[in-house]
Amino acid sequence: MRAGVGFLSSSAGFLTADLFPSSHLPLKPILFPSTNPNRIAVKTPPPPPTRRPLTAAFSAMASASKPKEARVPPALQLLTPPVSKFKIALCQLAVTADKERNIAHARKAIEEAAGKGAKLVLLPEIWNSPYSNDSFPVYAEDIEAGGDAAPSFSMLSEVARNLQITIVGGSIPERSGDCLYNTCCVFGADGKLKGKHRKIHLFDIDIPGKITFKESKTLTAGQHPTIVDTDVGRIGIGICYDIRFQELAMLYAARGAHLLCYPGAFNMTTGPLHWELLQRARAADNQLFVATCSPARDSSSSYVAWGHSTLVGPFGEVIATTEHEEAIIVDEIDYSLIELRRSNLPLEKQRRGDLYQLVDVQRLNSE
């Protein structure tokens, strides 16, 4: 007996073609025994069922899945920023054991960036000190005391005021009472401190044969997310290891951030694998801008930084980056891209609040 060609039929107790979505590829014919060896039988499947317009189906799904309840409290509406376009500078600096030199060098870089039109300048993680547990207590500053007790802090405040720019001051070791923190200070164009972020997630890592480092030997973890309203938009702050925790970035997005800034110093093990990956993920997941700034690489140092300071757009695209040497990157941020990407992919309207929630504990308790 020769084989013919046909489609599964509901009369034989099988699924029929009209049960499959029209978006699937057409069903392939299958072989079945034919009673007539001289002809091939082809059975045409019935037409697909009438489907509702996509917009109606989307609206029904969005309503049923309760997207507003996916963030608790509900996500804040993205406010119109003070400027729609501006230039940002990422100052990838070489760091030495000479603190006075580091401070003067950072000042010069900021002034150069401002001269190129930058309205926001981002510095690296631990730019005034070698990155080591032995150095943190020695180079730490009492930010609350200010003045001579905090020369790095004072320089950033002065330069921000003189140049009338916003500075996300990388991070420095901070002494507060008996505790040491890895701290980022944000200064407004008037030179005043607008926000202070203490690194929330301490870098404790052990990869045998590659790298072992434990910040918790000397540093204390911060207890608060930090989001700051500036002349160039609402900025969420994280420091290095903080970028690995997507919940923090999601929280900042729900608080209406336009830009996330992460001063960081990824190393030669994790840097090649994860540095750019994590930046692009945080930007694409939350559909906002992400800027990072690393120290330049010093192969003679006990901790060797990967470098590659980068600016990423809200579609996960790399706008600007550099290699591992000292560099000042100046490029443009265009906030209109946020609205464009969120209209292209309306993630906020598609979240499944009926299945999962992000809870902003501190914001919930304060309301």
TrEMBL record:
It comes from Elaeis guineensis var. tenera. InterPro entries: C-N_Hydrolase, C-N_Hydrolase_sf, Nit1/2_C-N_Hydrolase. GO terms for molecular function: omega-amidase activity. Residues 86-335 form the CN hydrolase domain. GO terms for biological process: asparagine metabolic process; glutamine metabolic process; oxaloacetate metabolic process. The keyword Hydrolase applies. This is Omega-amidase, chloroplastic. Keywords: Hydrolase. GO terms for cellular component: mitochondrion.
